[in-house]
Amino acid sequence: MPMDFDWTMALGSFLVAIIVGLTGMGGGALMTPMLVTFFGVSPLAAVSSDLVAAAVMKPVGSAVHYRQGTINTRLVGWLCVGSVPAAFSGVLLAKALGDGESVENIISKAMGVALMIAAAGLVLRGYLAHRGRSGTPEDGEQAPEITVRRVPTVLVGLVGGLVVGITSVGSGSLIIVALLALYPALKANQLVGTDLLQAVPLVFAAALGHLLFGDFRMEVTAALLVGSVPGVYLGSKISSRAPSALIRRVLALVLVASALKMFGLGAVPLAWTLVVLAAAAVAVSLYLRGQNARDRDKLPSSAVSPGLSGASGEQSERGPTMAA
């Protein structure tokens, strides 16, 4: 291992990779700004090194979800039809554009708006699920069969791959927003698992382009790999088994964080904003839980299990029956 190996960079990549494994996104939107802001890596070198590291990190996270059965492979296939060639072409396009910084700035602002909309959508879905009016399956429910919309899915992959090739951002952030819109019936862990697997060939194609035409730096990539591989494994283990409501809350926070980063918010204001949002989310959750408890207390005992009061007495005489 080289003497100039940066352990603080490895620790930072470990923390970011946990978020990637937990939510399927945040790698490019958080890792690349971290390299530029805190470690002084040039933007092109940060993009190149991040993508090469992600080519190793993403398969680790997707393998965990594949074993848990939380991946829609048909969606992955149609996304890759558009994203793989577009990701490689995005690197060439970034080279061809003379003012790449202004193009990246426009893309970042547009993505910031999309990410904020997606975060608001997740909050709304959580509220509807709490009120019992959401069509999104929760834990323990059988998810409906997803009908793959081929043309929109390929277009999502194409746009996402192009943006990834130019900026390294979007393999999770941009595509997971589109999947939320196209397939609202996907459970939260299915959304994360599908997004992680589709990102594997996409990131490989973009990484190959940056190895050939970018500014790849081995010492940066090595530090990212040391931290990101165990981090994404840990995050994926949690997300493949965690309750959908928990993943939805974390995903909403990451969406907001990524959006604010796209708008150019500094690290310290971003950290304080997330602390306030997390505290507000906990307060709202506790309030709703207390409200549910009060509503249950107001119900008469017969209303808790309507139509079962007579059956329960009948069952007690017969003895316990086998659960379905």
Automatic annotation (TrEMBL):
Protein's name in the database: Probable membrane transporter protein
Q: Does the keyword Cell inner membrane apply?
A: no
Family indicated by similarity: Belongs to the 4-toluene sulfonate uptake permease (TSUP) (TC 2.A.102) family.
Alphabetically list the UniProt keywords. Answer: Cell membrane, Membrane, Transmembrane, Transmembrane helix
Q: Which compartments is it annotated to reside in?
A: Cell membrane; Membrane
Which taxonomic lineage is given here? Bacteria, Bacillati, Actinomycetota, Actinomycetes, Streptosporangiales
Q: Where are the transmembrane segments?
A: 7-29, 35-54, 75-94, 106-124, 154-184, 196-213, 246-264, 270-288
Species this chain originates from: Actinomadura meridiana
Region span, Disordered: 296-324
Topology with regard to the membrane?
Multi-pass membrane protein
Q: What is its main location?
A: membrane
